[in-house]
């Protein structure tokens, strides 16, 4: 694993993993990061890999441990995180007796990984590890799983360790395909760009911005805000699409061409009879994930290629074919967006949020504004604030590809643990994690890891004492305004006290003035994690 570029193993050990733990004590090249529950382990590793671009290793314990980890592995699969997950297994033959903790591991893992296998001979172990690294790192990237029986781990043999293989997928389309794509884009009357996750993974923010400038096309971020998919302050950026099908259809109605650049094409959440894509809007898709192309909506042109390489070749071709007339028209179109682009919207929303600054409990929009204004420009936000953080990306500007990380799968509990991994990967930058109080409880054990490794994460817990998103949907979908099973106020959870029990400095925040002071103090202290338990509106 060291030879494959792994620098961290995230884990929660058990008896079957003791040979690995024994080996780790004899070397210092791969650091071991302890998580107190397997879902925490995987989510921390997910954050580390997404914020570093590195292959990461996770080690969990037999069937129950793998079961605990599955939800987080599902999230890693959705985010395309390159990750090798291993689990200790009972010795071969011993499993036939169905001992305590036993179950076949490969079938459990298969639905949520790119490849899953079990090692049956020690001689195969190097080949399997090499293959796992190659598969995890080859786009579309993702997690892989290896089951390690105890007799294999305890065996010794002289092995040929092999060497790494990397598949170079930084390809661009053929000249003919590029020209056809360029001419189709230039022929569009009103093109629109949808920016997505592959802009982040291919490091193509500058190229995507140039595409918008050449075409004079407005840009929306994909409907699931998983990362910093476009530069917020760019004059073409209009913000993120919602997951309301009817609202998205109204947004897209004026446009005759939707250019999806590395994006999940109109991924929605709850069912609607309304299709989000208007029938007259044609689609071009560019990216590595061919499964996404034409999956739900037909693509007139689909280019399976690296986003950065494709735009690097496409942009100058568009400039040449479009000429000065297109350049002039594009500049005028972008100028027309000045009163409704992200920057203009931010100014209006900020004014409204400031007017609610004296509210108690604290207004969530004011909280998101003050957090965004108070953090340094190079800070990183990890977002699982759900309803309380609905306005966060309207205030926090994406300045680089690592400035924001959102939850890919919707499975809650990811954010509080992922923030630990992100801070480990980006040591020189300050990480702020915006987490709902309900989400916090799913992986609260991550606070111990943050304290143990003295990571200066600022955890901002939006505390409304319940599952507000469920209350909203119960009322919207069923007309029911008397929820049950959605509050945790009797007894109330002492969020700050819970954090202190894990070794984290924590403060209860109930007023706007307290928040401003607490955030300023937290930014001045980089000795370890700090949690702000912020009481916000929306609990009823």
UniProtKB/TrEMBL annotation:
Domain Thiamine pyrophosphate enzyme N-terminal TPP-binding: 1-92
UniProt keyword annotations, A-Z: Thiamine pyrophosphate
Location of the Thiamine pyrophosphate enzyme central domain: 179-314
CDD domains (UniProt xref): TPP_BFDC, TPP_PYR_POX_like
Signal peptide: none
Pfam families, A to Z: TPP_enzyme_C, TPP_enzyme_M, TPP_enzyme_N
GO MF annotations, alphabetized: acetolactate synthase activity; flavin adenine dinucleotide binding; magnesium ion binding; thiamine pyrophosphate binding
SUPFAM superfamilies xref list: DHS-like NAD/FAD-binding domain, Thiamin diphosphate-binding fold (THDP-binding)
Lipid metabolism found in the keyword field: no
Keyword tRNA processing in record: no
All copies of domain Thiamine pyrophosphate enzyme TPP-binding, residue ranges: 394-534
InterPro entries, per the entry: DHS-like_NAD/FAD-binding_dom, THDP-binding, Thiamin_PyroP_enz_cen_dom, Thiamin_PyroP_enz_TPP-bd_dom, TPP_enz, TPP_enzyme_TPP-bd
Single GO biological process annotation from the record: carboxylic acid metabolic process
Similarity field: Belongs to the TPP enzyme family.
Protein name: Thiamine pyrophosphate-binding protein
Gene source species: Vineibacter terrae
Lineage of the species this protein comes from: Bacteria, Pseudomonadati, Pseudomonadota, Alphaproteobacteria, Hyphomicrobiales
């Amino acid at each position: 694993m060291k030879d494959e570029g792994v620098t961290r193993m995230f884990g929660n050990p058990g008896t079957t993993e003791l040979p690995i733990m024994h080996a780790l004590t004899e070397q210092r090249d791969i650091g071991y990061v302890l998580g107190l529950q397997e879902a925490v382990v995987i989510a921390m590793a997910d954050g580390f890999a997404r914020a570093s671009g590195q292959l990461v290793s996770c080690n969990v314990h037999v069937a129950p441990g793998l079961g605990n980890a599955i939800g987080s592995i599902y999230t890693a699969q959705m985010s395309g995180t390159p990750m090798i997950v291993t689990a200790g297994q009972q010795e071969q033959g011993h499993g036939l007796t169905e001992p305590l903790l036993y179950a076949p591991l490969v079938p459990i893992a298969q639905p949520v990984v790119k490849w899953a296998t079990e090692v049956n001979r020690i001689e195969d172990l190097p080949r399997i590890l090499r293959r796992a690294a190659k598969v995890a790192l080859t786009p579309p990237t993702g997690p892989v799983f290896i089951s390690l029986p105890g007799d294999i781990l305890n065996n010794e043999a002289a092995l040929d360790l092999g060497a790494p293989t990397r598949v170079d997928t930084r390809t661009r389309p053929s000249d003919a395909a590029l020209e056809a794509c360029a001419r189709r884009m230039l022929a569009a009357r009103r093109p629109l760009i949808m920016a997505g996750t592959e802009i982040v993974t291919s490091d193509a923010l500058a190229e995507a911005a140039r595409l918008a400038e050449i075409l004079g096309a407005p840009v929306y971020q994909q409907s699931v805000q998983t990362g910093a998919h476009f530069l917020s302050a760019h004059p073409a950026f209009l913000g993120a699409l919602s997951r309301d099908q009817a609202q998205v259809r109204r947004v897209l109605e004026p446009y005759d061409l939707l250019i999806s650049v590395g994006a999940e094409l109109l991924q929605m959440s709850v069912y609607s009879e309304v299709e989000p894509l208007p029938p007259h809007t044609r689609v071009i898709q560019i990216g590595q994930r061919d499964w996404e192309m034409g999956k739900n909506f037909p693509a007139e042109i689909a280019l399976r290629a690296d986003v950065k390489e494709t735009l690097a070749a496409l942009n100058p071709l568009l400039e040449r074919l479009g000429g000065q007339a297109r350049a002039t028209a594009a500049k005028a179109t972008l100028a027309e967006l000045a009163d409704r682009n992200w920057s203009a919207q931010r100014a209006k929303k900020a004014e409204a949020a400031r007017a609610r600054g004296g509210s108690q409990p604290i207004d969530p929009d004011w909280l998101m504004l003050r957090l965004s204004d108070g953090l340094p420009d190079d800070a990183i936000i990890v977002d699982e604030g759900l309803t309380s953080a609905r306005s966060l990306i309207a205030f926090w500007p994406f300045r680089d590809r690592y400035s924001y990380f959102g939850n890919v799968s919707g499975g809650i509990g990811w954010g509080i643990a992922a923030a630990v991994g992100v801070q480990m990967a980006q040591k020189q930058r300050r990480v702020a994690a915006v987490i709902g109080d309900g989400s916090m409880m799913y992986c609260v054990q991550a606070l111990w890891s943050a304290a143990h490794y003295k990571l200066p994460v600022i955890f901002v817990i939006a505390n409304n004492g319940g599952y507000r998103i469920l209350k909203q949907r119960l009322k919207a979908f069923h007309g029911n305004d008397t929820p049950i099973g959605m509050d945790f106020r009797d007894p109330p959870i002492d969020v700050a006290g819970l954090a202190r029990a894990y070794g984290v400095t924590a403060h209860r925040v109930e007023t706007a003035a307290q928040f401003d002071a607490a955030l300023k103090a937290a930014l001045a202290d980089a000795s370890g994690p700090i949690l702000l338990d912020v009481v916000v509106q929306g609990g009823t």
